[in-house]
Amino acid sequence: MSKIRRLLLTFSRLAIVTLSIIVLAQGAVAARPNAGSAGQQSARHDRRLEGTWRVEVTLRNCMTGEPVQAPFPALASFARGGTVTTADGGLSPAVRGTGLGTWWRVRGGAFWAITEAFLFNGSVRTGTQRITQEIDVAAGGEEFIANVTSEIADVNGNVIARGCATSIGRRP
User: Fold this and answer.
1) How many angstroms from the chain centroid is the CA of residue 128?
2) What are residue 127's phi and psi, to 5 degrees?
3) Sign of dihedral through CA atoms 11, 13, 18, 23?
4) Percentage of the chain surpassing pLDDT 70?
5) H or E stretch including 150?
6) Which helix (H) or strand (E) holds 169?
7) What's the chain's Rg over C-alpha atoms?
8) Lowest CB count within 10 Å: 113, 117, 149, 160, which one?
9) 62-76 pLDDT, tens per residue?
10) pTM value?
11) Among the residues of 82-135, which ranges form H helices?
């Protein structure tokens, strides 16, 4: 077999393998659901945390678990890659800033999230609030329940108060 013929045969085999990989890759991309498709709707109903949630927060006595005031609203947005942003409807933005933090899957529909927000008295920063959540997304993925702990620290980082809460999140 001549050198040129062997080179052409090798090139042809390489071209067939490359073409097969391209066709398979395009098929995999085409099989992914588009936004609004039935596949996207069914994926939304699994136990994922990603997305924005309307949350109802109930502050509780840490010892007894009894509510200490009426529930208040909040928003939580869990982004792909593990970042979370929260907005608290229980306090004025002049008192508590936006919460920023991280989240991660523990197993199945169980997650942890930690956020921090600056606290103010008027225009003076008074400290931070660190919120830790143990989140369980229900089967179907449209609701979660979380056990929440809160630590308030002064501007020097000294913890001056601790609190407990539960929250229920629902997709909008």
Assistant:
1) 21
2) 160, -155
3) positive
4) 74
5) strand 143-154
6) strand 159-170
7) 25
8) 160
9) 999 999 999 999 999
10) 0.73
11) none
